[in-house]
Design a protein that fits this description.
4 copies of one chain form a homotetramer.
Chain A lengths: L4 E7 L5 H11 L4 E7 L4 H10 L11 H10 L6 E5 L5 H10 L3 E4 L7 H14 L3 E3 L7 H11 L6 E9 L11 H7 L2 H4 L4 H17 L3 E9 L10 E8 L4 E7 L10 E6 L3 E5 L5 E5 L5 E5 L7 H4 L12 H21 L12 H19 L5 E2 L1
Parallel strand pairs in A: 1-2, 1-3, 3-4, 4-5, 6-9
Antiparallel strand pairs in A: 6-10, 7-8, 7-14, 8-9, 10-11, 11-12, 12-13
Helix pairs in contact in A: 1-11, 3-4, 4-5, 5-12, 6-9, 9-12
Chain lengths: 379, 379, 379, 379
């Protein structure tokens, strides 16, 4: 049932895909009501957009700083903020809201370097604030089920993990992928990294959350392949995990025919798990008899810890928005619990800022490996 | 952008899956805001549920009649009502709201016999009211794309259609499927038909909306298979369409391993189309070269009339709630257009009451065929 | 190891696909050596073809009658004959060899009517001769595994069987499918039936051999769809089996995109089996937990009675020729056992003439049903 | 039609899978007749096995040397020899037959180091003898079709290639995979390499033959993972090709659920090709519209150079033996052409000794990379 939470949004103006997606994902479960926002750097645009979304004009803010201050003071202020601004600004925006005592949900990647991210974590911890990084894919019931299968020893010790996330939308040298592609491929806006930051962090996060393994070191080959590009668009990374498991992480932006093909294959001493985000209603589990078992999202075999996020019976598909909705389900529950004093750490079932920091460290290590000629770099 | 529509709901109390689903589907696009409801025959339950959903107590009604009257009179009354009560009550509830001048969205099946349904249509037509029957699956972008492929002649003349919708949840004679299953299998609540009414009407509707073909006659075999059942749980229907195409419609409730397996295969003189609702992001199109082409929901190949309902880029899956959301997108647009006087028939892109009537006639013809020993019955 | 069997062939001249296929299938296991033949009605062609295949000229016969007589008398005469002539001649050819005391392997359909077929059986039984009808698909290890699963009660009581065999090669009204298609579509050569005789008998046989069920009655709709055709090219048959199971058998020759799509889906009270001949290395077994299990041809789960026909380890695919080779493996074993007096009925693991007769009766019943306006006809 | 070729075999005694497979593959097309052999080091076993296979006792030899000499001198001597002995003996056996003037077909890997292989090539070239290395998978029609698609520019310039060949049969530390596994895992019999030699060479060969690309350098991580193993059982290799394409080659022996999963994914500037040897009847081709097209082995779209090896119509599956048969089809044609003086280099459509040498160099470079700490090594 509804928790009567209120939230605000920074970014997500007209035409911004990701802001729209967050709003839909929160609406589908009626997790919280949008009551405030700063949707654009242009105050008029911000106000018009807020009004169109049904906000009172007084809560359509001209700047995120003003918003943080004002909402922090209101009695009926927002319970949390959703930050969906360009990546380079995440740090300052999140910081402002944390300092105003407001819980934060921030799109990934969390910041441009890991020290910024660690600072945000420090502030959040000091103030007892919640901080979610919206790695959407980990909201899928099936992703949580994979996590539980590994945790419960269903496939024994993890031996190697083949993880990949190829896309194809930037394959064409004449087409820079519109507004979305242009800023990603532009060193001025994206810094030293493109594909690995956008997709590689998802891969790293999926493996981390599904297996619980920590990366010990990486050997990265980051290539710029499509003519004219200035940043990596194909990354092939050898990985060693603490405890001895190995793996390969592959990401690409020119793999024609790959839409959004995050795929995780986990090979253990007693079984194998296959998970593919474009087919998010299903996990393939293979035990020692070699027989693939296709377990669907709402089958009795699904662990209760994962199944509880499902809304619909088997065969009634849930998708990407529902996955993001699941992140907000847990986050909203924690925010509400914070409000009424019942919060405990065990309630957290969303990607915390710790995962956001890990992602940035992964990118930094890969960059170093590439710059030094594809050598091993410890994390 | 939001249309500032208001809606009410009849049915959909605590624990009712379908009411919850409609609310989510409307929320995901912010199509309308729930402001009134009669959620249960028990006034207290109705009120509590309405409050929990954020309604004012005065708009949590004790009966649907009271609600229809009151909302019909309010200046800020609901723009449309969503009827998700047990099937046997659809007729009376819908009638009350139509008579109060309120547009109606009603779950399928529309009524218990086609004459009731025709009466509802007569009232709606007289009053110029919109009436949607929520055949959810037809909301999928890919279902609309199939319709466009057929309409545009991409597969030539349709020759035969193999349509099926098996489920497995009622396979076990010891398990009557909980509350959901019990009323379906109970002649007192469901009348003369179970499986064919629940699933067969979806099959009939899918073929009708995708191909535009009208059924000329049917030869139905309706079997009661699982020991102890009293109504059909497996239906195998030979179909002849006007113009000469043929087909088979199969529905079952004991097909273990089938969750919600509505599958339509359309064979034409120049090509074949395969559509499977459990994989709703994809259509398989085969032309005369025999090569299956897998077209995804947001590919450039999708017709604009279908593509416009998509929310997310390729590979970001949309599911069943989004499909139902799409029905409400078109319905909401039409309701808004009615309000501001811009409505035209061409705007309708949802299953109208006419399809609801067709479905009932299909069931009636099948029952007659079965009762007469599996003979052909004209529609 | 090789059994030193000798065989002859009637039919299978230059360009004849099916004769070539039988020879390859026998060669792949070195089951028998081709030593005699009558490959064509033209004696010169027959001799040249035999020579090209490595036969002595004296065993390249001018007529099948001469061949039957001569080989029946030789000390080193053929152990069995393979009959791959046009269907209408099967009866007379098989009869000649049976009368000469020679075991027979005959392509399906066995004869043009069931009384002929029964006569052949009578002769074979009287003389203690073996008679195989080469329903190729039943040679697949996976088909035998399906049979064992049903027999062993793995899916409980069979409730309904959805069986189909659509092809697409005759979809085009301007193209009669070359030599192969022309005789099939020609009433003078094929009698009263085309698609149902060619494909429908495979469907009937697959269900019979896999489930052990006997058909009680059929209700058939046999349509002539492609303009210009004179015989059925689309058949939709309702089936009732002894014991109460039901089913649908669908066959078509214009289903674009279907190559050779024999697919059997068996729904039982405790599980479901899916088998698809275009993916013959795999069976899908679903038990009451709803989880599809993909069992591969050479997995430990395969029953020994089925697995023993496999030649290669898992993942090394076997195909259609190997399936036919498996039929000859069992047939050759029985022929060899007949020769050395160790034969018992239990050794038979190929489709006997009894199945051939059943197939013809099925066709005859369907024709009667169609002619009487799609009514039930007992077998 | 049959070419009346005669062949001999060295190795392939009772219970030897690979010798049996070669004989079946040659039989299925009647490419050549087995007339001589040395099947075992034990003369009695060799003779018994030869007799069981139908050979004259005088051509069941006690040693390969004797066989090479005798057959080289006979007027009706073998046209070619098939060498299927343990890998470590390939070199000496092949050399003996080449020196006797006999064409050679040898199982892979060709030798234990590349210098031996180069010596064999030198002898073959000097004597004008043919030398095939039986990389079976490249015999598939679909593999040849992939080669033609790349060659014809259908996917533009190749950018990256993700190639893998995981198996799972050696996952269990308590099970050394029987006779087959034991010698592979034993440094005494296999030298310094196990998995990479067995599977990695297939991967390298598939990419080489499909794309025509030559490897410039490799960076290999060769791990020993399953407890107790002494040689690599998981290899993850970064590859750079001449011209700038990149790729990853992954092979494993403990990937539970992977039977024989050679999979090649080729991403080009204008399209993508997916090929999977466990589904060898199909190629997925994706062009710039993003739509996967599933092209089957015998569709009109298949290039004539590939299609000519097919035996059966679409939907009649061909498998692994047929693929190997295809290698022998081309090899037999070349041997026959050598015999009658019509041979030209252009006729060769099988993996030559040159590919065998490349494979060994690939292994040697990977070993060096691994030994030096996963650094780039030029080929």
């Amino acid at each position: 049932m509804r928790k009567n939470l209120r939230y605000g949004m920074v970014g997500g103006g007209p035409g911004a895909f990701i802001g729209d997606a967050h709003r839909r994902a929160i609406s589908v479960d009626d997790t919280a009501r949008l009551v405030a926002g700063c949707f654009s750097r242009d105050p008029e645009k911000s106000r018009d957009h807020g009004n169109a979304l049904g906000l009172d004009t007084e809560r359509c803010y001209e700047s995120y700083k003003e918003m943080a201050l004002a909402e922090g003071k209101r009695k009926d202020g927002i319970d949390f903020v959703v930050v969906v601004t360009p990546n380079a600004t995440h740090y300052e925006v999140c910081k402002a809201f944390l300092e105003a005592g407001i819980h934060v949900a921030c799109d990934k990647p969390l910041a441009t370097d890991s020290s910024q991210a660690e600072e945000l974590k420090r502030i959040a911890d000091e103030k007892g604030l919640l901080f979610m990084v919206t790695y959407t894919y980990m909201g899928h019931v099936t992703a949580k089920y994979v996590r539980d299968l590994v945790k419960n020893g269903e496939i024994g010790t993890v031996r190697t993990i083949m993880a990949e996330y190829p896309q194809g939308w930037l394959y064409n040298e004449k087409d820079w992928g519109g507004k979305q592609g242009e800023w990603r491929c532009d060193p001025k806006q994206s810094g030293r990294v493109n594909c690995l930051g956008d997709l590689g962090t998802h891969v790293e996060n999926a493996v981390a959350m599904m297996t619980g393994l920590k990366i010990r070191r990486v050997l990265a080959k980051m290539d710029i392949v499509v003519p004219g590009r200035k940043l990596d668009d194909n990354d092939q990374v050898l990985v060693e995990y603490e405890g001895g498991a190995t793996g390969i992480n592959w990401t690409s932006q020119f793999a024609i025919g790959c839409d959004n093909s995050l795929r995780i294959r986990i090979y253990g001493s007693k079984g194998t798990i296959l998970w593919f985000q474009e087919d998010p209603e299903e996990v393939t589990l293979i035990k020692e008899d070699g027989i693939p078992r296709l377990v669907k999202r709402s089958y009795p075999a699904i662990t209760p810890e994962a199944a509880r996020y499902g809304r619909l019976p088997a065969g009634h598909t849930e998708g990407w928005l529902e996955a993001m909705g699941n992140l907000y389900d847990s986050f909203g529950e924690c925010v509400a619990a914070k409000r009424n004093g019942t919060f405990t750490e065990e309630m957290i079932d969303y990607p915390t800022i710790g995962y956001g920091i890990q992602g940035l460290k992964y990118v930094e290590a890969c960059l170093k490996s590439q710059e030094n000629g594809n050598v091993w770099v410890e994390l």
